[in-house]
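re: ur question from yesterday

yeah so i grabbed the chain u mentioned. its 130 aa long if i counted rite. heres the sequnce exactly as i have it in my notes:
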Amino acid sequence: MRHLGILVLVLGSYTCLSSAQENIRQVDFNNFTYPLSGHLLGHDRLEWLNIPERAQAKKQPIQLVKGSNLTKTSSFVMDGKEYDQYEGFTLESVKFADLTGNGEEEAIVVLRYHTGGTQTTNYVYVYTLG
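ran it thru and got these structure tokens back, copy pasting raw so excuse formatting
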């Protein structure tokens, strides 16, 4: 399996789902576990990700529940109102298209990584049933 990653603004991966679904639209991407490797922020180039090799880095996968895995990191008060800050991932969108030209749709899933501050990074995963 090959995995494509555009890091800094986007991380992309291409993988096959081995499941009982007959249609990619049946996959519940809101409650799904996504692979993660490399740094969360600070990427400056496109690179191929090979998840089995990088699994040795012992990165915890991203496990979304109801489209989120946010953890409250802090809060601050501004103009008398308290604001919470969170770190983690949220599901931003899922789109479907035939990217490979094989007549089958693939899912393009966008996750956003929230740092707990003002910086965010988008991770793009492309999945196909295979």
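noticed a couple things. The chain has one domain: 3-129. also DSSP finds one helix and nine strands in the chain.
anyway ttyl
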